[in-house]
TrEMBL record:
Name of the protein described by the UniProt record: Phenylalanine--tRNA ligase beta subunit
Species of the source: Limosilactobacillus fastidiosus
Family matches, as NCBIfam families: pheT_bact (TIGR00472), YtpR (NF045760)
GO cellular component: phenylalanine-tRNA ligase complex
Database matches in PROSITE patterns: B5, FDX_ACB, TRBD
Classification via Pfam families: B3_4 (PF03483), B5 (PF03484), FDX-ACB (PF03147), tRNA_bind (PF01588), tRNA_synthFbeta (PF17759)
One term of GO molecular function: ATP binding
Binding site for Mg(2+): 463, 469, 472-473
Cofactor (UniProt): Mg(2+)
Subunit description: Tetramer of two alpha and two beta subunits.
Cofactor remark from the record: Binds 2 magnesium ions per tetramer.
Compartment(s): Cytoplasm
């Protein structure tokens, strides 16, 4: 809400600067969006009187005006406004003035005629189109007759006021009124407000009940509904003081009747609505639910299609207003209106919010109905509005109020314990301190014992219903800054990561060290994608009863599908080299009510891992590079069991000739390979390689204990061997045999050449290895190495039928 500092000063004796007041409100009541004045950034704007106004000799729409700005000689100003005329008091931007958007006004010539300033519209000095009066949309603004030439325009237009723009939370609906702000500010500054209420003067000529009736069959939708009638009004523009009140609060002035209802809304937080009495289809008003597909034209000239959950005010069963949200076009007050039916009500907040949101019709009224209405001031606001209309628009107020429903305003009694207050707030307050807070809030209270207090909360603070709410009131009025500070009580145990957390963190660091970037994907996906890329295929994925969208209906059983979506996103934006990993949970149904949650890690690579340079040629990612990453990761994690990579073609979304299951001690823990070209086409991605590992199994696997092995100071000896073997003999079989029979001094086996093709017998291939020997305690002799090498050669010949080349 935009709160006027000058308006607050009418009801409070404030001795504090506006910005200091705003800071206090922010620390005590509600947040502050901004503190500003409409005059900020403007200068040299004065009142001018148009002495003469002649047509421009070289234009059909410009005028040459002589304007009195309080100086010895009038200024000649060229103006293009269609409503400019002699005798008017206008806004003048002098030479050197600053107007809206920091625009500087300079002396110049317009079509050959000298112009020494500018006659301004409200929009040109910073008023938005939303609050500037419609009557001046196409021209300059005309100031009142008592404006003195040469004086600053700021005081005449209320631009010298400071506006405190509060951000009211849903629980503090009472702060959406000047009345609520005055009460709250008076409490925390310990001031006595002198809030003014205007009493209504009724006519004895005719009773309101003879002119109109109200019926509310279901009081749940309208707990309070009241009407008054004002006869003999003359609709015109509001006086300037009222217009200033409205536009400083962000509301556009319309006419004296509508402006009064908006003024009272701002003052009390009570929305009102005025009907043209003579345009009502019937003078029997009622409140009901709308009918399905019932149509209604609102004040913004838009046709609304209603449903059974909407609330309407009807006249003779015909809708005349969308209750609590917006009135109807057919019964709106116009310049021809002479009799006004004035409505004040309390409508169901939930229903108003739903209809305003569904129809996208958020208004000042709906905002207040949604947050709650003070039941104590419904009739007060209705009476004051009726009286102000007679003062500003003439006419008489008929006798009495017509009531369709009325829910009495009830205060709440809450018992508090002083010891409990001090325990919750950490204070040592005395009972006098607590009662002083409630006296400042105008909450009546009485002692029931030495430690307990019975507090009566008025209906205007409907947000308070529990003792905890009053603890908060004590804290904020006493001052949050005055509450004692203390360090939290903490244990002396040293913090640290659990083994599981350490393993997961090390996993992330390891893959990041290999050049992969971390990604985070949705845990929810489509059923089809949830079934893809499973390590150990199981039943159907778990499905949501109420999914957010068709793309998020099932829990994932693999991470890879989400990573492929990330690859597609990057590739579509010409990022062709993608290397990502993700560590997260998958959800495996096991027949129970909840799925089994497992930690997995997966990676995806496409394009090149290293960029081209002068000494590095193109090297697209391939199966062996990705497999090497997995091998290095398992080695770095210290996995002790036997690790095997077994060719697999069971997963239809993976390439059947370039996929391998990963087994540790004969237990399946993951897989690595190329995404099937058809699957890659469906994801709109190029050739891509992936892996996924079950971290739960890796964390359970046996680990190699960390130990220190000094670097040997003795030299190594190498032997090369080339073998001719059958094509069905694998590298793994040969390496395992060499390591098993290589002796105690064999340190490593390295495959450095593979050949098959011409000059070799059919069904044969050639593999060449380097065997490295080393003794950590002495220098090896040729005989020791030759003896060990001979054993390896013999075993290869005997067991694998290898031919030594």
């Amino acid at each position: 809400m935009k709160v006027s500092y000058n308006w607050l000063n009418e009801y409070l004796d404030l001795d504090v600067a506006p910005r200091d007041l705003a800071e206090k409100i922010a620390r005590t009541s509600v947040d502050i969006n901004d503190v500003y004045s409409l005059s900020d950034g403007l200068k040299k704007l004065v009142v001018g009187k148009v002495e003469t106004c002649e047509p421009h000799p070289d234009s059909d729409h410009l005028h040459v005006c002589l304007v009195n700005v309080g100086e010895e000689e009038p200024l000649q100003i060229v103006c293009g406004a269609p409503n400019v005329a002699a005798g008017q008091k206008v806004i003048v931007a002098l030479n050197g003035a600053r107007i809206a958007d920091n625009q500087k006004i300079k002396r110049g010539k317009i079509r050959g005629i000298e112009s020494n300033g500018m006659l301004c519209a409200l929009q040109e000095i910073g008023f938005s189109d939303r609050i500037a009066p419609k009557a001046y949309e196409e021209g300059i603004y005309i100031l009142p007759e008592d404006a003195q030439p040469g004086e600053s325009v700021f005081s005449y237009l209320g631009m010298d006021d400071t506006i405190i723009d509060t951000d009211v939370t849903p629980n503090r609906g009472d702060m959406l009124s000047i009345y609520g702000n005055v009460n709250d500010i008076a409490a925390f500054y310990n001031l006595k407000p002198h809030f003014k209420e205007v009493a209504v003067e009724e006519s004895d000529d005719q009773a309101t009940s003879d002119l109109i009736s109200a019926d509310v069959p279901d009081e749940k939708i309208a707990p309070t509904y009241k009407l008054r009638v004002i006869k003999g009004v003359k609709v015109a523009d509001s006086p300037l003081w009222l217009q200033i009140r409205l536009w400083n609060s962000g509301i556009r002035p319309i006419n004296n009747v509508v402006d009064v209802t908006n003024y009272v809304l701002l003052k009390y937080g009570q929305p009102l609505h005025s009907y043209d009495y003579d345009k009502l289809p019937s003078h029997d008003l009622s409140v009901r639910h709308a009918q399905k597909d019932e149509k209604f034209v609102t004040l913004d000239d838009e046709e609304q299609v209603l449903n059974e959950n909407d609330i309407v005010v009807t006249s003779g069963n015909k809708p005349i207003a969308l209750a609590g949200t917006m009135g109807g076009q057919e019964t709106a007050v116009t310049k021809d209106t002479t009799t006004v039916a004035l409505e004040a009500a309390v409508f169901d907040s939930v229903m108003v919010r739903k209809q305003a949101r569904r129809l996208d019709l958020h208004s000042e009224s709906s905002m207040r109905f949604e947050r709650g209405i003070n039941p104590e001031t419904v009739e007060t606001a209705l009476n004051e509005a009726a009286q102000l209309i007679t003062e500003l628009a003439g006419g008489i107020v008929t006798q009495g109020i017509v009531t369709g429903s009325e829910k009495p305003a009830k205060s709440k009694e809450i018992e508090l314990s002083l010891s409990k207050i001090n325990h919750v707030l950490g204070t040592e307050l005395k009972m006098e301190d607590v009662t002083d807070v409630f006296e400042r809030l105008a909450f009546s209270n009485k002692l029931t014992s030495n430690d307990t207090l019975l507090v009566t909360v008025p209906a205007r603070r409907w947000d308070i219903s529990l003792p905890a709410d009053l603890y908060e009131e004590v804290a904020r009025i006493y001052g949050y800054d005055n509450l004692p500070e203390s360090l939290p009580v903490m244990t002396r145990n040293h913090g640290g990561l659990s083994p599981r957390q350490k393993f997961i963190r090390a996993t992330r660091h390891d893959f990041e060290g290999m050049g992969l970037n971390q990604a985070i994907s949705y845990s929810l996906t489509t059923v089809e994608k949830a079934k893809q890329f499973q390590i150990d295929p199981v039943a159907e994925p778990m499905k949501l009863d109420f999914p957010m969208s068709s793309d998020h209906v099932a829990t994932r059983m693999s991470i890879i599908s989400g990573l492929l979506t990330d690859v597609a996103y990057n590739v579509s934006r010409n990022v062709n080299n993608v290397a990502l990993y993700e560590e997260g949970r998958v959800f495996i149904p096991r027949g129970g009510e909840r799925p089994e949650e497992q930690e997995h890690v997966a990676g995806v690579l496409t394009g090149q891992l290293l960029n081209n340079s002068w000494h590095i040629a193109d090297q697209p990612v391939d199966f062996f590079q990705v497999k090497g990453m997995v091998e290095r990761y398992l080695h770095n994690m210290g996995i002790a069991g036997k690790i095997e990579y077994v060719a697999d073609h069971s997963r239809k979304e993976m390439h059947p000739g370039r996929t391998a299951n990963i087994l540790i001690a004969d237990e399946l823990v993951g897989f690595v390979g190329q995404v099937h070209p058809q699957t890659a086409k469906e994801y709109k991605i190029p050739e891509t390689y992936v892996f996924e590992l079950n971290l739960e199994q890796l964390m359970k696997a046996k680990k190699v204990e960390n130990e220190y092995t000094p670097i040997s100071k003795f030299p190594t000896i190498t032997r090369d061997i080339a073998l001719l073997v059958d094509t069905n003999v694998t590298n793994e079989e040969i390496v395992d045999l060499i390591k098993k029979r290589g002796g105690a001094f064999l340190k490593s086996v390295h495959l450095f050449d593979v050949y098959s093709g011409a000059h070799l017998p059919a069904g044969k291939k050639s593999l060449a290895y380097t065997l490295t020997y080393q003794d950590t305690k002495a220098t090896l002799t040729e005989d020791q190495v030759n003896q060990a090498f001979a054993k390896v050669t013999k075993r290869l010949q005997d067991q694998l039928k290898a031919e030594i080349r």
